[in-house]
Amino acid sequence: MARKVPPKVDVPARNMGLSGSMRKGSDHGKRGGNDLLDARGEPNPGYAAPGAVKEQLRRRRFQTPRKRRSKPSPPYAELHAASSFSFLRGSSQPEDLVARAAALGLPSVALLDRNGVSGAPRFYKAAREAGIRALVGAEAVIDRPQASAVSRQREERPALDDEETRVNLLVGSRQGYRNLCRLLTAGALSHPKGEAKIDWTLLEEHATGLHCLAGSEADPVGRALAREGLDAARRQLERLHAVFPRRLHVELSRHGIRAEEHRNQALVRLAERLRAPVVATGGVRYAAARDKPLFDLMTAIRHHVTVDDAGARLARERQRRLRSPVEMHRLFADLPRAVHAAHELAAELDFTLADLGYRFPDYPVPRGETPISRLRELTWRGARERFRPLTARAGAQLEKELALIGKLDLAGYFLIVQDIVRFCKEQRILAQGRGSAANSAVCYALSITAIDPVKMDLLFERFLSEERGEWPDIDLDLPSGDQREKVIQYVYRATAGTARR
């Protein structure tokens, strides 16, 4: 009896977690009939698991617009975009935002998701492939200030949003990224799941290395302006200015809403009074205009209403898409300095996830020496004892390895491992290096390994080469139990406080 084959079902792209910007301009689907996307970038018919769709998204190729012999685009960088990692507050996946930004010719985009940086790795990976600089930030929910009588009267009216107050933060340095992560973690640990928020004390303690965008509808300044007027907004702006000296920027957005333009005019006056720069942003919640219906659905879900009953809640979210530099300059023709300031701030932010590579602790060396000079001295001292005799061939191999170690700035790493081995010998703890490290003459000279790689004619490049671009792997076998713990505690004591900032 023939097995019944279930009929194929055409699944809309949006039900597969794909925003509209994903569905065009992709090269995927051209390599075979089993791809999830067809030659046009459309999802192939039939059901596909969400994880498979996500993997296909990650493998996609990004196409930038062809360069034409025309006037170059004016400078602009988008500093405020949210992805689907802002639960129900953004409808586009990080890869969709990158694809659209590449098509629009945006050189830099900052991802500011609500209470987290979970989308940043995917955003960075896609942006790197597309040739876009991926900036990092977050919208951190913060405790609302005590409401005045006037504010309480206004709050009695039906609210169009969830009345959540968020501070918009941009990472300016590695220290800033560390502070942002600590800030968000502290806010999550001190509140029930799903209700994470920070307070002003936490913000002040972790402000170093961060820039603040002030003036959006949901931030303390925008909230105060809507509830209590210009004076209250000025007080909030001054408070933020005290927390972020020379790192506060007044954010202006235009989405075709009359009340928003009134807020922009007030913000410009406040910025001039405080001498704070104004920057233009898109307040982006989705990649392209065709993604608005999906965002409308998410907005309705967030407010526990149907799309038909959402009404003004949907209208106020219009035009929150990525825009090209030309369009932003046209939109802010009366405030060109705000568009230029956005580009300048993006260039000033000196951090991307590319700066998060592991950094070994600094190994202390005697005054007047460098890590490589110290390593060279210890290597040759050990070589005279280990290589019997120390032949010209062994010497040449040592010089070759030391030159590459110095070029790749890995001397400190070898010194740390050598120091661990030295400690083990002093404490009569068995420690033996193994693996590809046995191919290194330097490791042999430092007594990290026990095999003479020159005599055994072993290939050093299997252990370390410039082309591989990877950290060398030195494995140390240690006995289990108290002796192993003794070595671990020594490493803690020896490296405490020496990690690079």
**How many β-strand runs?**
9
Q: Return residue spans where pLDDT drops below 50 for at least 5 consecutive residues.
A: 1-36, 38-43, 148-160
3D shape: elongated
What is the beta-strand fraction? 5-15%
Number of domains: 3
Overall mean pLDDT stands at 85
CATH topology of the largest domain: TIM Barrel
SSE class: alpha/beta
Quick structural summary:
The protein has 501 residues and is an alpha/beta fold.
Considering the chains and any ligands shown, give keywords for the structure.
two-stranded antiparallel sheet, alpha/beta, TIM Barrel, disordered N terminus, seven-stranded mixed beta sheet, 19 helices, 3 domains
Can you describe this structure?
- This protein is an alpha/beta fold and 501 residues long.
- The protein has 19 helices and nine strands.
- The protein has helices at residues 50-59, 94-104, 120-130, 149-155, 174-189, 200-205, 220-228, 230-243, 258-274, 292-302, 307-310, 312-315, 325-331, 336-348, 371-386, 392-407, 411-426, 441-445, 482-495, and strands spanning 78-81, 108-114, 133-141, 166-171, 210-214, 248-252, 278-280, 432-434, 475-477.
- The chain has three domains: 13-57, no CATH class; 74-356, TIM Barrel (Alpha-Beta Barrel); 371-495, no CATH class.
- The protein is 41% helix and 9% strand.
- Strands 1-2-3-4-5-6-7 form a seven-stranded mixed sheet. Strands 8-9 form a two-stranded antiparallel sheet.
- The radius of gyration is 29 Å and the shape is elongated.
Secondary-structure topology with pairs:
Layout: H1 50-59, E1 78-81, H2 94-104, E2 108-114, H3 120-130, E3 133-141, H4 149-155, E4 166-171, H5 174-189, H6 200-205, E5 210-214, H7 220-228, H8 230-243, E6 248-252, H9 258-274, E7 278-280, H10 292-302, H11 307-310, H12 312-315, H13 325-331, H14 336-348, H15 371-386, H16 392-407, H17 411-426, E8 432-434, H18 441-445, E9 475-477, H19 482-495
Parallel strand pairs: 1-2, 2-3, 5-6, 6-7
Antiparallel strand pairs: 3-4, 4-5, 8-9
Helix pairs in contact: 2-3, 7-8, 15-16, 15-17
